[in-house]
Design a protein that fits this description.
Elements: E1 4-6, E2 9-10, E3 18-19, E4 33-35, E5 42-44, E6 57-66, H1 70-80, E7 84-89, E8 95-109, E9 112-121, E10 125-127, E11 131-136, E12 139-145, E13 153-156, E14 160-166, E15 169-175, E16 178-181, E17 190-198, E18 201-206, E19 209-210
Antiparallel strand pairs: 1-2, 1-7, 3-6, 4-5, 6-9, 7-8, 8-9, 8-10, 10-19, 11-18, 12-17, 13-16, 13-18, 14-15, 14-17
Length: about 210
Amino acid sequence: MSYILFGSKSTKADYGFITAPYFIPMPAVQTSYVEIPGRDGTLDLTEGFGCIRYSDRAIPLTLYAVAPYEQRVSDFVNAVHGRRLELVFDRDTSFCYVGRVSVDGLEKHDGYCTITVNVVAEPYKYKRTITTVTQTGSGTVILNNLNMPVVPEVTATAEATLTYKCGGTPTTTVIAAGTHFIPALLLEAGAKSVQVITTGKVDFSYREGAL
């Protein structure tokens, strides 16, 4: 039987609910088309800021509670309604969705209750584990990333020189010991090579996201 984690609570193990088949829609692309007089067609500016942006996605869910259900349904509603939570679906347990949960209604019947839930989730689903790549001493690291652009948190135990490409242009950044966010070190889909020169250790940590 399927289950969904709302935060740390399982619809199956903690509430004893039955999860109806669900549909997770793709987020809509935030398109931008401009009509220009004298030009055939429109000018597509969808990627005008360098990447594709997406809207939130609404995930409708239906749960069933079998009698006696009053206390379990009450516990669920009070735990999730209106809250921003991480949701994990049993068919994709490596990822979670993050969004605002609303219980839209309870339809009570003899022997069971239908619970209608809607989640307004962020466009990307996120890996549940943080990706960390470590370089000890000087060398080259490969930072692999899924579809969502992300800037890694860079933590160095000693001064370090990082060389990488930004928009196709070789770029060098010198960081002191400590934790840094370097906007130019943007990870897009695929692999980015970073040369590290240091006498210490450098950690690159980031959360990957996919559609």
